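Protein modeling request. Please complete all fields; requests missing the sequence field cannot be processed.
Requester role: graduate student
Desired output: 3D structure, C-alpha coordinate encoding
Chains: 1
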Amino acid sequence: MRNALVNTFARLRKDEKGVTLVEYGIALVLAITVGGVLLTSLGNGVTEQMGDACAALGANVAAC
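Delivered output (64 residues):
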Protein backbone atom coordinates (compact mmCIF):
# COMPACT_ATOMS: atom_id res chain seq x y z
CA MET A 1 0.00 0.00 0.00
CA ARG A 2 2.79 2.39 0.91
CA ASN A 3 4.60 1.74 -2.37
CA ALA A 4 1.44 2.48 -4.33
CA LEU A 5 1.07 5.85 -2.57
CA VAL A 6 4.73 6.71 -3.08
CA ASN A 7 4.47 5.82 -6.78
CA THR A 8 1.28 7.86 -7.16
CA PHE A 9 2.82 10.93 -5.54
CA ALA A 10 5.98 10.55 -7.62
CA ARG A 11 3.88 10.41 -10.79
CA LEU A 12 1.90 13.48 -9.75
CA ARG A 13 5.09 15.45 -9.04
CA LYS A 14 6.28 14.82 -12.59
CA ASP A 15 2.94 15.79 -14.14
CA GLU A 16 3.10 19.47 -15.10
CA LYS A 17 -0.48 19.91 -16.34
CA GLY A 18 -1.66 21.12 -12.94
CA VAL A 19 1.21 23.57 -12.65
CA THR A 20 0.33 25.10 -16.01
CA LEU A 21 -3.29 25.45 -14.97
CA VAL A 22 -2.26 27.28 -11.80
CA GLU A 23 0.02 29.59 -13.78
CA TYR A 24 -2.81 30.43 -16.19
CA GLY A 25 -5.10 31.06 -13.23
CA ILE A 26 -2.64 33.46 -11.63
CA ALA A 27 -2.13 35.27 -14.95
CA LEU A 28 -5.90 35.57 -15.42
CA VAL A 29 -6.46 36.99 -11.94
CA LEU A 30 -3.60 39.45 -12.44
CA ALA A 31 -4.97 40.58 -15.83
CA ILE A 32 -8.48 41.06 -14.42
CA THR A 33 -7.15 43.05 -11.46
CA VAL A 34 -4.94 45.30 -13.58
CA GLY A 35 -7.71 45.79 -16.14
CA GLY A 36 -10.21 46.70 -13.45
CA VAL A 37 -7.87 49.24 -11.88
CA LEU A 38 -7.10 50.81 -15.26
CA LEU A 39 -10.76 51.00 -16.28
CA THR A 40 -11.71 52.54 -12.94
CA SER A 41 -8.96 55.12 -13.32
CA LEU A 42 -10.05 55.88 -16.88
CA GLY A 43 -13.67 56.22 -15.78
CA ASN A 44 -12.74 58.63 -13.02
CA GLY A 45 -10.70 60.72 -15.47
CA VAL A 46 -13.57 60.88 -17.97
CA THR A 47 -16.01 61.84 -15.24
CA GLU A 48 -13.72 64.65 -14.13
CA GLN A 49 -13.28 65.91 -17.70
CA MET A 50 -17.04 65.86 -18.31
CA GLY A 51 -17.61 67.79 -15.10
CA ASP A 52 -15.06 70.38 -16.17
CA ALA A 53 -16.70 70.68 -19.59
CA CYS A 54 -20.14 71.11 -18.01
CA ALA A 55 -18.80 73.79 -15.67
CA ALA A 56 -17.20 75.61 -18.58
CA LEU A 57 -20.46 75.61 -20.54
CA GLY A 58 -22.39 76.91 -17.57
CA ALA A 59 -26.11 76.57 -16.97
CA ASN A 60 -27.01 77.05 -20.66
CA VAL A 61 -26.85 73.29 -21.35
CA ALA A 62 -29.69 71.13 -20.03
CA ALA A 63 -27.59 67.91 -20.04
CA CYS A 64 -25.32 69.25 -17.31
